[in-house]
Write a structure and sequence with these properties.
This protein is α+β, with helices and mostly antiparallel strands. Helix content is 29%, strand content 39%. The longest helix is centred in the last third of the chain and has 37 residues.
Length: 158
């Protein structure tokens, strides 16, 4: 099994980061390379929620189903129907508060490569570097999307 981990300290609250991640059907709004992410389940988030992530290139997609959910802190998704050379993929997102307006967001992907020795070489030379870059962009996208959303949210007058 291979494990790929990335984390980023970002200048938004843990609540803001969580609200972006918990909006399960809208990962396409901040994730590079995903053009749409409609729900396949009636459940919008929490265990059992399911979405199809359509990639921007190649007409490919994958299904992600939430298998564990800790409100405000973390969730785990099982990947299926994916084009990657994996037997299995499980990804966990975690949010930890650091300061009032700062948090740590971490993504961990556990996956089993196909193709034996050739798969191990492909993992080392192509998959890990490519997925690492995508993870970095994904995590940065959470911050950018949250800040953009805050900037366009009208202030309520009370």
């Amino acid at each position: 099994m291979s494990v790929l981990e990335r984390e980023i300290k970002i200048d938004i609250s843990a609540e803001q980061a969580w609200s972006v991640l918990a909006d399960f059907e809208n990962i396409h709004a901040f994730a590079p390379g995903i053009k749409a992410s409609p729900l396949l389940s009636e459940t919008k988030n929490g265990v059992g929620a399911c979405r199809r992530c359509a990639f921007s290139m190649g007409g490919m997609s994958m299904v992600e189903t939430i298998t564990a959910w800790e409100e405000g802190r973390s969730f785990t998704i099982e990947l299926s129907e994916f084009p990657m050379p994996f037997h299995r993929g499980v990804m966990t997102f975690m949010v930890t508060s650091l300061l009032d307006n700062q948090c740590l967001v971490k993504a961990v992907l556990n996956y089993d490569m196909k193709y034996g020795f050739f798969g191990a070489i492909m993992n080392k030379l192509m998959i890990r570097p490519m997925m690492g870059m995508q993870f970095n962009k994904l995590l940065k996208g959470i911050e950018e999307y949250a800040k953009k959303s805050l900037a366009t949210t009208p202030l309520s007058v009370g």
